[in-house]
């Protein structure tokens, strides 16, 4: 359906101060406050729409504007190509309704059941997992219990109020602990502190759960997983969930890194493949010398996956990790016949405030 101005649409009531957003697939409606993005308004209304970076660069919040108009007063919709904008694609994390709108977007009902909230936690364990990856385990203070879906992430709240997102590397556990795999970003404030100074007993304020990278159980299709570096964290949580469910769906797991030491839980993944006949695990190294020395497959992870599965029409695909890997994978996998609505991903972009600052500082974001 083509995009039309609201004035021509008597079916939607026009209210200049409080725009209403209608989801065409379910008929649900919610109001958007002044200058609120569609995603923020949906979250306030308890409706889960897809997102990951919240900065306008990853594209996981892409939806179609069916009626009405939106603008982008914060960040430009970097993740949308020209042709996508011509087809009325919008980015829910950046689009601000200008009057009532109707959109076609994927709703993720399973995520709606768990409202996100703040919690005070204490570090109960800290361990180096790889030369630049720190594993940290947090526990909420007192009798507080946290809930989330496997694959979701949390925000660490810094003293100045800024947020730093990290995927939770397991589903909720009986002991209440939250596992994170934190890669040290050179020049990064929070991850440098974690790498150099964080110790058992330190307190962290978190907001949890966030994100829509969660297991989709309404499918019988085989699954492909592609993780780059610490992108293994949410993949681990989702795979463990499916193993616990006893799924018969095949799961093919690809994990890419530069050197073998970066595949910090390769033995765990090898164990899954040894124990469950429907699971395969393929580690891939981008450094040719490291690949030769370790006997592991050499190359780029998305290329390795496509060599093994050139036609993705019959798969569900989950991927998480560095933005460049996710962006390359998105394009190539859709070109290999993967329907876009069966591609689930978290792109490990820097936090929205840093993205905002970088986008304000330069015209393009490529190479982030
Ligand atoms: C959904 C999601 C899940 C994630 N999960 C994980 C995970 O499980 N594990 C993991 O390791 N990472 C994960 N990440 C990435 C992680 O959030 C970032 O690496 C982290 O926020 C970096 O924080 P920092 O304070 O150390 O770095 P920041 O201080 O935010 O800096 C990051 C980089 O940007 C540069 N920078 C900062 N400000 C500017 C500026 N104004 N102009 C130019 N450059 C600037 C810095 O020099 C640095 O290189 C995830 C990201 C997302 C979006
Ligand atoms: S572009 Fe909107 S969540 Fe990443």
From TrEMBL:
Domain 2Fe-2S ferredoxin-type: 19-109
Native species: Luteibacter rhizovicinus DSM 16549
Matching CDD domains: fer2, flavin_oxioreductase
Domain of life: Bacteria
Single GO term (MF): oxidoreductase activity
InterPro entries named in the record: 2Fe-2S_ferredoxin-like_sf, 2Fe-2S_ferredoxin-type, 2Fe2S_fd_BS, Beta-grasp_dom_sf, Cbr1-like_FAD-bd_dom, FAD-bd_FR_type, FNR_nucleotide-bd, MRET
Protein name: NAD(P)H-flavin reductase
Ranges of residues in domain FAD-binding FR-type: 116-216
Gene3D superfamilies per UniProt: 3.10.20.30, Nucleotide-binding domain of ferredoxin-NADP reductase (FNR) module (3.40.50.80), Translation factors (2.40.30.10)
